[in-house]
Description:
CATH superfamily: Homing endonucleases
Order of helices and strands: HEEHEHEHHH
Strand order of the largest sheet: 1-2-4-3
Largest sheet: 4 strands, antiparallel
Shape: globular
CATH class: Alpha Beta
Radius of gyration: 17 Å
Distance between the termini: 35 Å
Helix content: 40-55%
Number of domains: 1
Amino acid sequence: MDMTENEKWAYLGGIIDGEGNIRIDLAKNPRRFMQYTGRLTVANTDIRMINWLKDNFQGYIWTRKRDDDFARSRGWKDCYHWIKILNSPSREFIEKVMPFLITKKDRMQILLEFLDTKSTAGIPITEETRKKRLELIDRMNHLNKRGI
């Protein structure tokens, strides 16, 4: 099925609202400083959707194999994850999908606030920026709790 560019963004918004997870990861990298990363993940057992996302919006695919006896005995399928890192160059991507979001719009807004705190790689951040990022992570984590 051929879609216009606008239809693709609208469809993506629906997928993100229904199947997406938006978060800010905090990890210590090998050089021993904290690294903050925005991440969008969509998980589905139908690889066709995941391939469509990658073909149209880049990112990468990770597969969670369900090949153990426990999973097989319950009929669980493999699960495919489309992952897109959302960093400063992703601002245009976020701004294009935002009008089509309903349930995840608040999370994407937090991610935009997070991107406003990003600086040039390798330049240490201020204590004020670190506190702001941690506050944004807390807000995001609260929204991502089950039942919220």
